[in-house]
Every structure is written in structure tokens, then in C-alpha cells.
Prior knowledge:
two-stranded antiparallel sheet, alpha+beta
Amino acid sequence: MYSQNEINSDIRFLAKSEIRLKILSELDTYPDNVRGLVKRTEITYSSISSNVNKLEENNYIKKIKNKYHINPMGKIYFNTLMEFKHSVDIINDFNSFWYKHDLNQLSIDAVKNITDLKDSQLIETTPLDIYKTHNTIKKQLIESTNVKAIFPYLHPEYPELIEEILKNGGSIELIVPKNIMKALMEPIDKDLKNDAIKNDKLKLYSASNDLHLYLTICDEKMSLGLFKNDDSFDQNRILISQDSKSYQWADELFNHMKHRVIK
């Protein structure tokens, strides 16, 4: 059993050397010898050789038939460090999206798996295009057949967009605050709406508490919006993605919020 001090020492040993992490990254792809690592990394022979020896002495790697392999614990430490690094990269890359925003309604799993958003794109309004974020979301909704969404506020175009999706035979699941449900649904054709509900094409979930999260999952595209710490929705920036991991991340977050509402 490893003590906390031993784990901290191991992590520090790996984290303080980019060369050691690079070596582990290469060996995680496939085993190799020192000369092969030099060729693959373009790092000097002396640096590779020295750090390979240190990694072997500390039992992170082992030599089998003239090639180095990662030991199981070495692999665990390396993967943990890489996950942490990717998380930090996402926070730094999208700093304006996360900073001074309310993250309380993100589930524990959503935070833990934040690296799934690494291939997302930050969309921000500009002085010349103040509707850029809304138009991006609108385009996704118009082009989609199956939609899951958390709408924390009412936009005047939402009823029409919802009606168009239902007219085209699509399906929609919505989580909205109780106080906007009537205003959102009332403009939609009554027969169309009732038929969609009857055939499970329209599913509505009413939230009694405040929703401080904006989310759309349009076919295989997702978009995420946040509230500022002053309780106002940040209409100036959203994260969007078509990556499968981002889609899965968004779908799990939607289901988490749905279960909270149903309770």
C-alpha cells in the first residue's frame, strides 16, 4: 500500500520533468529502446538516457528484450497527470468562459470529466456581431431533428423553432423553469403540440428552482452556456462542439438535470 507522501513524491518526480513525461508518453504508445526514443522525440541521447535510467531506478519502466515498457503504477501516474494537465489546459484555453461564472449546476461527473470538452470551440459575440452566440444556436436548432435542451430563459424565437422541429417529424426534450413554460408552449399549434406529446415526440420537464445552465444537444452537436456570478445569463459566449466525447458529456449532464427535476 502506498502512503500519501509516497504518492505525492512520485507525482512530483514525474511532473517536474517534461522529458520524463515525454518518454512515458512515447512508451505508452509502444515500447522502445533509448535510440528509438531519441529518434522519436528529437531529444539528445544523453538526456533520454539519463531520464530513462531514473525512470527505471524508480520502477516506472522496465526493460524487456532490449525495449522499455511502462510498469502498471507508472502508467497510472502518467495517465493521472495527463488528465490533470488536460483539465488545466481546458480552463486556460476557455478562461473567459469559466472565470466569474456559476458552475454550481454542473454535476460532479461533468466536472470530473471536463477534459471531454477539449475539442470544443468558444463562440463569442463581437461589436460587429452582437447576435453571434444566439445565431449559432439557432442554426443548430434549425438543422436538427432530435433536440434535448435546457432553456433557462425565454427567447421570442424559441416557440417557432420548436414548432418547426415538430412539423418536420423531429423530437424534443426540454427542461425549462416553471414560470416560462406556459409562455414557451402557448404559441405552438395546439394539435401539433398535443400529437407530439402523445407520441413521445415532445417531452417537457418543469423546474421549480432557478436554472443557471444553458444546454442544447442538437443531433450530435452540443452548446453550453453559463450564468455569471451576478445571476445574469452570459449571452456573449458559449462553448460548442461536434466531438463525440463532448456530445456524451452534454447528454450525461442533461440526464443529471432531468433526474433532479423529476425528483
